[in-house]
Design a protein that fits this description.
It is a single chain. α16 crosses α17. The strands form four sheets. The protein has a seven-stranded mixed β-sheet, sandwiched between helices. Strands 7-8-6-9-10-11 form a six-stranded parallel β-sheet. It has 17 helices and 21 strands. The longest helix has 20 residues.
């Protein structure tokens, strides 16, 4: 087993953001000497004030060769200069999750915990929240941590001493955590995402698969990539009829691997196949630490999905506005759109190298309009022109973002704005979103006069940081704009 840094060890913590303070505090508790390096002066000042006893440095040009260990924040790529320099000098590079695992296995912060790891391109946070709710309802001392918000290393140092950790892990965190062997782990699904970071789909999948390296591997059978993964002991779940030993839906009920009923399928929040799959995955993980099907069902019946995850935020003149800002890639947007029959799609942002074409081709029959914003709006507009030429498309931009190019399909020429389906706005990202919602409302109300009312759905299929501070900021701006429409409820 890999050792943990102790008294006398000199550790470099690369990145002073979300995980940096937690890592620094844990290392100081172990008796190590800690230097935190970050490229932003404000971040250095903040962590120096929060964690007395550390040294802070500018990461640009910082030499890692004199350290015993480098602990990087999850976002650091393997090609980052500090990583390359450390490895060239023979200094081990790990992430905060790997450090937490080593400390936990060594019993340095109390008896080792049971780790239940959740990963996948989509559904991680909802599944982790469901899992925590099930564990707590069953009387298990548990806490959700990891990519969901609270660093794992903080959770293992908690005075409340949780015995089970519901750990959401991103592909970045798993890449830097090669030793983690959880009690049980799930890969919900694997679709194109973060390929600019990992370099290839194969590398991305391999990092996700690290969640299955423990005692029990749980896989999403409805996903073509996840269904092919295996662990020492493997069990699968499906939103359809399960086979022997599988979790699934039978007779309108979610059932566990033994066929025991969990809860009615129509009682799951969020509704639809994605919510059902998340609930089954959470149940399978919880049963790995002794929770019963009945206990899982009781907890899931009371569970409600968190903000920005298929959350209805307003109803205006019969049109429902749904915030799924967390749908930051095409696979997540697909699940979101397919939960509705008629959709005015609000999309755009940073596609991160993902191909939007297959999504647009599949959901085209459900779309009654699309309103696009953000860095890669033109790429989405081009796909709509190819695969859904009769769908009206409006692109909204401000002077602070790149200019739009002409749209080719005739449906877009009828919008009557500043260009062929283009709206320009003076102002910040919130002002752009207000214009987006106004355009979506206009399209939706026109469509409602010709048939069933569509939903206006924010399912961006893209990251938010080109315009907004986070996907939460994007969702809040959408919700505020919808509620500001006349007659909102």
């Amino acid at each position: 087993m890999a050792t943990i840094p102790g008294p006398g060890a000199h550790v470099l913590v690369a990145g002073g953001g979300v995980t940096g303070p937690a890592v620094a505090r844990a290392l100081l508790r172990l008796g190590s000497t800690v230097t935190v390096a970050d490229g932003k002066p404000a971040a250095r000042e903040k962590i120096a004030s929060e964690v007395p006893g550390i040294v802070v440095a500018d990461i640009d040009g910082h030499d890692p060769s004199g350290y015993d260990l480098v602990v990087v924040a999850p976002g650091f790529r393997p090609t980052a200069p500090v990583v390359v320099a450390a490895e060239a000098a023979g200094v081990e590079v790990i992430g905060d999750v790997e450090l937490a695992w080593r400390i936990d296995r060594a019993g340095a912060f109390g008896a080792p915990r049971d780790w239940l790891v959740v990963t996948g391109t989509n559904g991680k946070t909802t599944t982790t929240q469901m899992l925590e709710a099930i564990l707590l309802h069953a009387g298990v001392r548990a806490v959700a941590c990891g990519n969901i918000g609270r660093p794992v290393i903080d959770a293992i140092g908690d005075d409340a001493d949780p015995r089970v950790l519901a750990v959401e892990l991103s592909s970045f965190q798993l890449h830097w955590a090669p030793s983690v062997r959880p009690r049980a782990g799930v890969v919900l699904n694997v679709a194109e995402d973060h390929l600019d970071w990992h370099g290839s789909m194969a590398a991305y999948t391999a990092d996700k698969a690290r969640a299955l390296a423990g005692e029990l591997a749980v896989i999403g059978l409805d996903d073509p990539v996840a269904s092919g993964l295996r662990g020492a002991v493997t069990v699968g779940f499906t939103a359809g009829e399960p086979g022997p030993g599988q979790y699934g839906v039978r007779g309108g009920f979610l059932v566990d691997g033994s066929g025991a009923p969990v809860l009615p399928a129509d009682a799951v929040s969020p509704p639809g196949p994605a919510g059902i799959s998340d609930a089954l995955a959470a149940t399978a993980l919880a049963q790995a630490v002794g929770v019963t099907a009945a206990q899982a069902g009781e907890a899931l019946a009371a569970f409600r999905v968190g903000a920005h995850r298929a959350e209805p935020v307003a109803t205006v003149r019969g049109i429902t506005y749904v915030d799924d800002s967390k749908a930051t890639n095409p696979h997540a947007a697909l699940n979101s759109i397919e939960a509705h029959e008629r959709v005015v799609w609000v999309a755009g942002g940073q596609l991160k190298g993902a191909d939007i074409g297959p999504l647009v081709a599949r959901v085209a029959p459900r779309l009654v309009g699309a309103v696009l914003l953000g860095l890669d709006r033109d790429e989405i507009a081009d796909s709509l022109a190819r695969h859904a030429p009769d769908v009206p498309v409006v692109r909204v931009s401000s002077g602070e973002h790149s200019p739009v190019s002409p749209v080719t399909n005739d449906a877009n020429r009828s919008v009557g704005t500043t260009g062929a389906g283009d709206v320009r706005v003076s102002g910040d990202a919130d002002a752009v979103m207000a214009a987006v919602v106004a355009e979506a409302s206009r399209i939706a109300e026109a469509a409602a006069r010709d048939g069933a009312a569509p939903v206006v759905l924010l399912a961006p299929a893209a990251a938010s940081l080109d315009m907004f501070t986070s996907y939460g900021h994007r969702g809040d701006a959408f919700a505020a704009s919808a509620r500001a429409l006349g007659g909102a409820s």
